[in-house]
Design a protein that fits this description.
- By secondary structure, the protein is α/β, with parallel strands linked by helices.
- An eight-stranded mixed sheet has the order 7-6-5-8-9-11-10-13, with helices on both faces.
- Strand 5 (about 540-545), helix 16 (about 550-555) and strand 6 form a beta-alpha-beta unit.
- The N and C termini lie far apart (about 95 Å).
- The relative contact order is 0.09.
Length: about 800
């Protein structure tokens, strides 16, 4: 007779009391796994880049490893062995891998950087690096659920417990996601977070070993039988759970992109979105496990879940496109960022939770449906069943994430992608319910649901262009006059024109460049300072295309022979640049310009080329991933790729920032370039707006007379006109923007956080202050330490005296 919890018949009844303890082990395991995933992905993105292709390789390797582990466990580990002993060993091995990777990742990273020289082979090398580092620990993670599942019989009540195990793992994942995103990484560093995960693995392993000595287990009689003796799982269940995984990860990709527009693409926003999605999966898994416990037709329940998923996908699309962006809220008025996080959490719950609950419920229901075709006489290997269902779900998830990001969104946009997922959900329901459709009532009801889902699919709205343009500011900015908008492989972009005729270039919900005076001044300042600070710049690297104005300003310098522009999103140089061709001198069509579609950091790490000038105009540091272009290690790589006498320039925004954020950016730059200087750009009202950091590899003074003579030469007439268009009539007007240098600002920068690869502290600092508008305060604090540097400028006494008056405002 079975126990109340349907454990193995040969196990005594009192062993059922250990099942809740086993579920708790999965909570710890899931927590560690999510910490690892966040840390490993962040580390590897610093090496192989954060482009869509790199992320596809990274995610595919990790999830592919989990899929392989779930399948191979039953094949290579005998069911004779105690499940808790196997599970504990797996956890111990995961912890060992986690500890080793702390030291192996930097070594593999250096080897990869030394070998990768770009080109088509680069993608293969990225895959090799990911496989070497991630495949084994991911496979071990994927094997844990099938290993533990061998303790439970493949009966409805037993499968219910398997669902609870799965749900406990997801609950742990939510805890790991929140702990890593809001505490471990903002407070400590990647190594510390990894050691926390290692400690969790070792604790779980120790508890597992201890339980294995107390919990009785008897292997099924045919534990060593071959696959030929095992009944097949109904193929419709395989297909349905695979398609469910496809729609789950596909929708997560789409909704993450759209919600990050709405929330602001900070690391905290991504943590909230992922946390809500995982929480929904956990809730759904618990509900599905409870339903599977006494389900008489689990196959039908799985089918209905897929039908309802089509409707919840429509709900998510409706909320994100038609409701949430228009909630009347101005995040600038929030007293602290935690109030903003609460609003983001509420909006994520409205959009994501219904669908996530159903996806979570699908897994235990699929297990229950699969167990209908397996003997329930204590002879079957439950781990084999769980492994196959889990593998099918994971394969679908891999396909969903890769196809959505690389194909569907660039091809048919987020609207079309969501419509596809609704249709796939209908197909998933039809596949699993096919044997049941012989009943007229079931067939009619299914047709009604399918028709309803198709109707809602036809009503899905496109993402509002205002959301792409203004993002979190849409509710008070209104619908823009859009000249162009598109959803690319890496980002959503728009070009708008306001009532004054100014054009704005928007990336992922924020203005990245424009033809407004303060932006044109900044872009021309960045470009021309880069060119004029070098005596004879020939080979130039521009990080970030933007509207092309900075690159265009540099391209007209007569000595420049070759320019490489790094840009991740192909739509920007190919399409957006045309709308700014007058301001950027048609730089995208310039024959001496080569556009490299790659993550700029990855390009700098792997290129063999050196440059006379490297200028960087990256996205705001509060955008997730952008902080990698502000780290000490990145600046060291930039320095190593400069020719003798080379010049590096870096844009730093003062708006949407705080003093601590700017101090971190300046201190990190000056740590690598101790002779660095600051050049300011105020807005049209005279308020602080942004600055340009400049560093030269030589320390010779700037000859102001020679610089003035240079821009008045005939070959520099275009450069002179470009400067005059934005108010720089002479070299003195350009140099008067000098605002300080490293050694003068030492008291202000004391104690500032150095942004390093191992902590990316800047993205967490900036993510807490992106609603602040303290540009004038920050500028004034910098100017407090400004003195006129007599050793920096050279020239005639009259010229130096005149420049002194201009710089010091006398």
């Amino acid at each position: 007779m079975n126990t109340p919890f349907d454990v193995k018949e040969s196990a005594p009844e009192h062993s059922s009391r250990f099942l809740p303890l086993m579920m708790i082990l999965f909570v710890g395991s899931g927590c560690a796994a999510l910490i690892y995933e966040i840390v490993w992905f962040q580390v590897l993105q610093l090496v192989i880049g954060s482009s869509a292709v790199s992320l596809a390789v990274l995610l595919g390797t990790f999830m592919g490893g989990m899929c392989a582990g779930s399948l191979l466990l039953a094949k290579y580990v005998s069911a004779v062995r105690h499940p808790l002993d196997v599970y504990a060993r797996l956890e111990a091995l995961i912890g060992a891998c986690g500890a080793m990777l702390i030291f192996l990742m930097p070594l593999v990273s250096r080897l990869y950087t030394a070998v990768d020289g770009g080109g088509p082979a680069s993608v293969a090398l990225r895959a090799i690096a990911c496989v070497l580092l991630l495949l084994l620990p991911a496979a071990l993670m994927g094997a844990t659920l099938p290993a533990m599942s061998r303790y439970v019989q493949a009966t409805p009540r037993g499968v219910s417990w398997l669902g609870f195990f799965y749900g406990g793992n997801i609950v742990g994942a939510v805890m790991g996601c929140v702990a890593a995103g809001f505490y471990l990484l903002p407070t400590f560093d990647l190594s510390t977070a990894s050691f926390v995960a290692v400690a969790l693995n070792l604790i779980v392993a120790a508890l597992g070993f201890a339980l294995s000595k107390r919990v009785p287990y008897a292997a099924p009689p045919d534990a060593n039988a071959g696959d030929a003796d095992k009944p097949e799982i109904p193929k419709g269940v395989y297909a349905a759970i695979a398609l469910s995984g496809l729609t789950a990860l596909g929708c997560e990709v789409v909704w993450t992109r759209l919600l990050s527009l709405m929330f602001g693409a900070t690391t905290y926003a991504f943590t909230i979105i992922l946390g809500v999605f995982l929480a929904g999966l956990g809730i759904g898994s618990a509900v599905g496990s409870w339903l599977a416990r006494d389900a008489k037709q689990p196959r039908a329940m799985l089918g209905w879940a897929q039908f309802f998923l089509a409707l919840t996908t429509a709900w998510g699309a409706y909320m994100i496109a038609r409701q949430l962006p228009w909630w009347p809220m101005d995040e600038r008025l929030a007293l602290n960022p935690w109030l903003v996080f609460q609003m983001d959490l509420a909006r994520a719950l409205f959009a994501i939770l219904p669908g996530a609950v159903l996806w979570g419920a699908s897994f235990p229901l699929a297990l229950a449906a699969a167990s209908e075709g397996i003997r329930t006489d204590s002879n079957s290997d439950t781990g084999r069943t769980v492994g196959r269902v889990y593998a099918a779900n994971t394969l679908g998830a891999i396909a969903g994430s890769l196809v959505t990001g690389l194909v569907l969104i660039p091809w048919i946009g987020t609207k079309g992608a969501q419509q596809v997922f609704m249709i796939v959900s209908i197909v998933s329901a039809a596949v699993v319910m096919l044997p049941l459709l012989r009943r007229p009532a079931m067939a009619v009801t299914s047709c009604v649901f399918a028709g309803l889902a198709l109707y809602f699919a036809s009503q899905v709205s496109a993402v509002p262009v205002g959301l792409i343009a203004w993002g979190r500011s849409l509710s008070w900015q209104g619908t823009p006059n859009a000249l162009y908008w598109g959803e690319g492989i890496n980002a959503s972009i728009a070009v708008t024109e306001d009532a004054n005729g100014y054009r704005n270039f928007h990336v992922s919900g924020k203005v990245e460049a424009s033809t407004e005076r303060q932006d044109m001044r900044l872009q021309r300042l960045l470009g021309h300072l880069s060119g004029l600070m070098h005596d004879n710049p020939k080979n130039v690297l521009v990080v970030g295309f933007g509207a092309g104005v900075t690159a265009g300003a540099l391209s007209i310098h007569p000595t420049v022979e070759r320019m490489v522009i790094c840009e991740m999103e192909p739509l920007i140089p190919k399409i957006v640049s045309r709308y700014f061709s007058e301001a950027n001198y048609s730089v995208a069509e310039n024959r001496k310009v080569s556009v490299v579609y790659d993550d700029a950091r990855h390009y700098v790490l792997t290129t063999r080329e050196k440059f006379d000038v490297i200028t960087s105009d990256p996205i705001h540091p509060w955008v997730k991933g952008a902080a990698a272009l502000y780290t000490r290690e990145y600046f060291e790589h930039v320095k190593a790729h400069l020719n003798p006498g080379g010049v590096v320039t870096q844009w730093v925004p003062l708006y949407e920032s705080t003093p601590d954020v700017v101090r971190s950016e300046l201190a990190t730059f000056f740590d690598v370039f101790p002779n660095g200087t600051i050049w300011r750009n105020d807005n049209v009202n005279g308020n602080g707006y942004d600055v340009v950091l400049v560093a030269r590899l030589d320390d010779k003074p700037l000859d102001v007379d020679a610089l003035q003579t240079r821009i008045t030469q005939p070959e520099y007439m275009t450069v002179k006109a470009s400067l005059a268009e934005v108010g720089y009539e002479s070299a003195f007007d350009l140099l008067r923007t000098y605002s300080g240098r490293s050694k003068d600002l030492a008291p202000w920068l004391q104690g500032a956080e150095i942004n390093r690869d191992r902590n990316l502290r800047l993205q967490y600092l900036a993510g807490l202050g992106y609603n602040e508008f303290l540009g004038t305060q920050i500028r004034n604090e910098i100017l407090t330490y400004r003195t006129f540097p007599t050793d920096l400028f050279a020239g005639s006494p009259d010229s130096i005296a005149y420049l002194n008056e201009l710089v010091m405002g006398r």
